[in-house]
Each structure stands twice: as C-alpha cells, then as structure tokens.
Amino acid sequence: MSLEEPPNNFRDKAKRNDEHVKNEVVTEEKRSILSEYQINDFDSVLLITSAPRGGSSLLFDILRHHEETCSPDGEHDRWYTLNGVCYPTFESDVVPADFGSFDREKLLTDLLAEVGATDRSGDRTHRVDNTLVRLPLQFPDRELPYKEIHDALLDGVSFDETLRELGLSPLQYDEYADRDANSPFKTETIEDRPFVSSHSYKRALTVDDFERTLVLKASGDAYRLPWIRKQLFPETDIKLVHLTRNPAASINGLYDGWRLNRGFQTYDVGDLDLDGYDGSLWCYDLPPGWVRQGKLIDVCLMQWAQAHRHILDSRDAFENVLRVRFEDVLTDTRSTVGEIVEFADLGESALFSENVENPNKVMTTKEPRHARWRDREDFIKSALARADEPYTEVLRELKYTEESEWI
C-alpha cells in the first residue's frame, strides 16, 4: 500500500546538496559519466539478495573484487530512500511491482552515482569523489563546505581529521564506525550507517565499463524484487543469487546489530517499546507486519522469515536464479564462489582469486566464528519455539530443518 508522503525537510536538503556535489564538486570525468549514462545502461546485473545479517556483505565484497565487475561502494538502499521509494511512502519496505510514481530518470542516475570498475591499479580520486557523494546522505541536517572538503582530501588531508574539524563524529561515518558510540544514534539519516566504503582496487567508470557485469546487493531488495525487475531493469540480463543462512545465526547477528551504538538504523517510525532495545530508530529492514512493542528477538526472527518469504515468492520474476548457502561460502569458499562466477559468466580474474584466499571482514558486529549464536542458545531457541508461519514454512523450503548444520 502506498501512502501520501509527508513533508521531509532533511530529505529535501539532502537532495539539494547531493545535486550540488554531483554537478559542481566531483571531478569532471565523473560529471560526464553521470550526465550521459544511467545504471540500466549495464549489459548485465548480478543481484545478490538475502535477509539482513545473512552474509551478503561478505559475498558482495568477494565478488566486487572480480576484474570483470563494476559495483557501488556498498548497499544501494540509500538512493531509494533519497528518492522516497521507501517508508513512509509505503507501510513497509515492500514496493509493489507496478509502483511508478517516482522520478525514474533521477533514480537511475542516482544509483550510478558511486559505481566504479574493479581494477588492480585503483584510483584514489574515484574514492574521494564517492566520499563527497555520500556526505549529504550521511549528514543531511548539515550544510557542509563540500568543495573545500573535496580539495582537502585530494591534497591528502586525513578525512578523520576533516570530520572532527567540522564537529562531526567519525563514528558516524563508514569505515571509521568500527566501535560503539557512547549512546544510541538519535538522528535519522538517508544512509544506513555504517560500513559503506570503497576498496583500493576501484576506479572511475569509462564508457567501455558498461559491458561489464554490475554487482548489486541490499538486504532491502528482498521486498522489491518484482519492482526492480519491472521498473528499473526491464530489458537487462539479471542473474539473481538468493543467499540463505540458518535462522539462529542470522537472528543472533540481527539482535547484536540492533543493540550496537554504531549504526544499522534505517527509519524513524515513532515510539518503540521493544524489550532488549534502548534506541529510538528502527534498525535493518522494515517487514510487513512490523510492530512497535514486544520482544526484540521476535522482531529479529520476523525480519529473517519475512525477507526470505518475499524472495521465495518473487523468484518467478527472474529467469536465472541460483540459491547459495552462506554456510557453504564459509566452509568451502573457493568452490561455492566459483559456482557463482560460472553462473554469472564472469570468467577468470587474478585479483578475485587472491581475495577468495583471504577475504575481508565486512559488516561484522563481533569477531566472526562458527556457531556464535550458541552463546545465547537457550534465548534464541525459545524465540524459535514460539514462531509459527511464515517461519516454519520458510525453514522447510530453505532446508534448514537439521539444527546440526547450523553454523
């Protein structure tokens, strides 16, 4: 259901500053690409979809190191949010397949704003451009000296130092958000903090790069797959990877993320009274049937079950779908990721092979280890025992009925 969207001053300010940065601050080469191309100009898209805390950030990071790919610096949800394709335009993150009341040309250009090509040589200027593109989304309530920041970063000034001089906490920005703030964040942003960052093997797009495969992932896409297929990429070759993870591990990660003062906030939905949560903003995806009161652990279970239910129900919108277990990504990385590379017809990449051997740690809430959920096993099992449909149906369809396989 689509609702009439109320005035949103901070989003309007973010839009204005974002246009200023893209039209007047970033380098001329980037401006040229954004004036002539949109994200649907790519020949093919590899779309990773999963529930939040399902391992998609790690898989995305591995795949974006392939030298035949292009990718944004992280999840692309913020561009939907900036354009109002989100709550409160809708009651949840579900976007109807026929929803067309948005500026399609602007959204398709915005989605291209920080996409770069993977190249061993890298390009620091591209990373600086993308840093500036994200600033209006991460600090929408501030008027910042964008041109001065851009020039300072190109001259080698520390961005950490630049943020502090502007009175901004580095803990609220991307790669610096590696520890908790002193208290929960209370200010709504366009960007889902934290951990959006480029890597050193990215460079600015050229015309020829649109022949590469674009890799995209955002957990919120679970609720908008038919709309993405029909409205954004109706003529593009899309290959869909459905990444699954056992409910206990995913729910445990969600529970940790909600309780950390370092990000993952998405919406200001009003007063929340969730047992186990002291913050004021909703975290992660907003599933249909979301609640303001109750137990946080039950909300986390709902987020896992609803996301996968919607993915399972949307498969028919795509001709090419590959289901992959995150457990296999962890235990047999090379073979499992190799299957995805073959599925996407990417071919060989030396840089990719090196990264598969030693993948980065991305979007972690605690030091990764197998079956970490068993630290609060009784608590999680109690929540699972209370669950009914759609949890039980999804559990069977994803073949996670054997608890011994939950790592």
The portion of residues forming beta strands comes to 5-15%
User: What topology, given as strand order, has the largest sheet?
Assistant: 4-3-2-5-1-6-11
Total number of distinct structural domains: 1
The percent of residues in helical segments reads 25-40%
| Strand element count | 11
Shape: globular
Low-confidence segments: 2-7
Number of helices: 16
Major sheet description: 7 strands, mixed
Q: Please state the structural category.
A: alpha/beta
C-alpha Rg, in Å? 20 Å
CA-CA gap between termini? 37 Å
The H-and-E topology, N to C, reads as HHEHEHHEHHHEEHEHEEEEHEHHHHH
Mean pLDDT: 90
InterPro entries: P-loop_NTPase (IPR027417), Sulfotransferase_dom (IPR000863)
Pfam families: Sulfotransfer_1
Region (Disordered): 1-23
Keywords: Transferase
Word description of this protein:
This protein has 407 residues and is α/β, with parallel strands linked by helices. The protein has one domain. 40% of the residues lie in helices and 11% in strands. The chain has 16 helices and 11 strands. The protein has a 7-stranded mixed sheet with strand order 4-3-2-5-1-6-11. A two-stranded antiparallel sheet has the order 7-9. Helix 1 packs antiparallel against helix 6, helix 6 runs antiparallel to helix 7 and helix 10 packs across helix 11. The radius of gyration is 20 Å and the shape is globular. It comes from Natrinema salifodinae. This is Sulfotransferase domain-containing protein. It holds the Pfam family Sulfotransfer_1. GO terms for molecular function: sulfotransferase activity. Keywords: Transferase.
